[in-house]
Amino acid sequence: MENSTISPIFNANISKAWAKILLFVLLVPNMILFFLPVANVTAATGYFGIEPNQVQFTVTLYYAGFVAFYSLERRFYSYFTYKRYFIVFQLVQLLCCLILFQSTNLYIIYLTRFFQGMLFASAVNLYLSMMALKIKTFRAKEISYSLFFGMLLCASSFNNLITADFIDHFNFNLLFQCAVFTYAVNLLLVLITMKINVEIRTTPLVQLDFPSFFLFSFFLIGLGYCSVFGQQYYWFQSKKIVLIVIASLASFILFVVRQYALKRPYINLTILSFYKFIIGISLLFLMYICRFSFSYSGQFFRSVLGMDPKHVSYMYAVNIIGIVLGVFYACVHLINKKSVFIVWIVGFASLFSYHFVMNQEMFYYGNESNYFLPMFMHGLGIGLIMVPTILYCISSVAYYLAPSAAAFCLLVRFLGFTVSGILVNYYTIYHSLIHKNRFMEYYQKVNPMFENRYETLKIKLLKNGFNQTQIDTVSNNILSKELNKYILLRSVMDYYTLMMYVSLVVIGFLIVFWLFQKKIKIAIRPILPI
Hints:
Layout: H1 16-35, H2 41-48, H3 52-77, H4 82-102, H5 106-134, H6 140-169, H7 174-193, H8 210-229, H9 239-261, H10 275-291, H11 295-303, H12 309-335, H13 340-361, H14 372-395, H15 402-444, H16 448-463, H17 468-518
Helix pairs in contact: 1-5, 1-6, 1-7, 2-3, 3-5, 3-8, 3-15, 4-5, 4-7, 5-6, 6-12, 6-14, 8-9, 8-15, 10-14, 10-15, 10-17, 12-14, 13-14, 13-17, 14-15, 15-17, 16-17
């Protein structure tokens, strides 16, 4: 009898445990699609016939679709019943995966990825609302947010973990075939397990703010494009980048003006008048910048240490363990109503430890086991910071502004993602060039170490049967590859040093602000006269 009253969503024979498992199964494919193209950039470029930057832009478009549609999606969510809404977006996602499986046209791929991001917004709202229904306690918000954002944080590492062997043994396009099959199974599960609700929460689909959606979308896409391709085109030296920046700024200004003019704004910008909200989104922005320095780790493992994708995936498994533990501890901390500042300080201290240890280990290369600790610390740090910060932002504004606060937090995370991309591209392209010029100057001089290395290579190649002409060519190629490794190392170390400083500044700010909040006064004894 208990099961019959458990949920207005699932059939009476579906227990609470099975209902939660079904929600998890329905959400996972949408998260995997988020970072799927960059699970193996080389395989994706080969399959689609595009450049690595264009593969990265497909992820940015997915993110932009998610952010832009989040506020508008709430109107669609309130129009459909749960079951009908699930059926609609599962069918459309299945169709999008079929398009990506069949098409290699770049613009169709771009459009489809943006549309998939919009559908992801639907999945997110459905998941969070349904999880809140399943958890009938005061802890519903903390637990549902922790589960969702924990899964989202794990998405990138999880993709690398599950696709490493798959891509090595099969073609990249089979991933989209698997996605089609998964959505088909999910659709069948929805049809079998969910009720057809007669109590429809109908809100007519009228006065939809499409102008704000299009202005917001254009701004996000323009910003994302510049973050991916700006360094490649030398920023404002390119007329294309200049035009996109101007158009994006114009659309953003129009969007802001429109929000203040509307009676029911797309995103209510009065949330920016709450100082706690400003603190929260600032920490969220900085956390995302520190988080995506993680993209350098995989490049270091593959290019410098020479790990194959399977062994690299083991490193991501350690990162996932750190994320899970961090999210779990943060959730327990919030439920017990303890100070969020402690979690923030420990989280950014973990991110500092990750960058510091990686920076030191890169001096010596070492075994893969040397990098388990920093990978774990990275996961622990972002796991501790993410959920408390978002809940802090939402709770710091008036109740009726909570949807706008959640949407703005999503925008800030996108900004952190794009700014991080700009920094990574800067250090990958421009900063690497600086180090290359320095190394080349060093090699052009008479250098005993360089000469010894060159002679050692020649002797080895001679013993292996190479003639003099081949020895010169092969030696130069080997030295060139080693030079590229050192250039990459120096660029990564410079970037990680910057992230260390960012983490230290944030930790210092948090300690000072925490002491200020607690109103701790330090009594200073006056100096006695001699």
